[in-house]
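Sample entry (75 residues):
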Amino acid sequence: MFGAAELDLARLPTRFPFVLVTPQYETERVLRELAEAVGVEIRSGTELVSLRQDADGVEAELRGRDGTVRTERTW
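Predicted structure, serialized as tokens:
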């Protein structure tokens, strides 16, 4: 991965002394599948601007690709 560079992880104080390389697209796929399995809607290109929680639920302020900001509430 880095040419002739070597990195000895065997002496690290961990049960996992190795490098695990997982492509970003694979991580995203797994997370998307898990989210969709529990009913979460994935919105690409949406920025979470703020998040507020109270005793009745959560309110999120979201910015879309076009720059408009909207507020959504859930429990």
